[in-house]
Sequence to fold (263 residues):
Amino acid sequence: MSLAFKERAIILVKAFPQPSQKYEETVCCAGITPEGAFVRLYPIRYRHLRPAQQFDRWDIIEYQATRPADDWRPESRHVDEESISIVQPRSHTSDEQRVRQWCAHISPSLVALKEENLATHKSLGVIRPDQGTIKFRHRPLDAASEDDRQLQAAFKQVSLLDDGPLSRLPVEYDFSYRFTCAGHKHDMKIHDWEVQAAYLSYKQRYGEGALDELRKVYEQAIPARNLHLVMGTMKAHPRQFIVIGLLRSGIDPVDATRQASLL
Fold:
């Protein structure tokens, strides 16, 4: 059994909840340590955390963790959720500071990230879609599909908008991005918690126009703000990358890197 250690990370990603026989449901999070290392934090039963522990993106948290023996992905951490504490809220970091945290992890392309995965087992990274190539898509979930039923069950268990369960508001769609990166075509499902929460919020606000409004934001507004995709692999499929989060900023990472080198 590996030794427990204490660590801090700034949270970049909260992926959508996954059903678990052992933990009811878990939320996999990705962050970066003060030393600049990418880390994957799980299993976190987010709705079971105390209110003071319920962190958001860009919060810096501290936690006790071990290296899981059954997961050889180097970034993975098995977190003791009772040990989680927020040590710095997101309001204490500027947009430029946030960009500097993750810009060092940008890969030239998804193809290059996959090659690095084969060489070093790297399982978390960031890529930049080619400008003007993003297409946002949605697909109605199929009640006959086992994968879709599991996805709906996960979201029924965890509230995306309120403190209670979403018993009357099942997930209706999955969402994906079609894009090119360094000229290579990709079509990838978005596993970020945020997109599902956004759809539910837009449905309440716009009714039948929710999907059109969501597409405008995810296909136009977000890509216009230096969109980068956080990519990660799954434990069961350690060579297969999926989109686990979206990063965007009014600051181009190239400019942030250049300014940092002048300081």
In short: Residues 157-169 have pLDDT under 50 and may be disordered. Residues 96-262 form one domain.
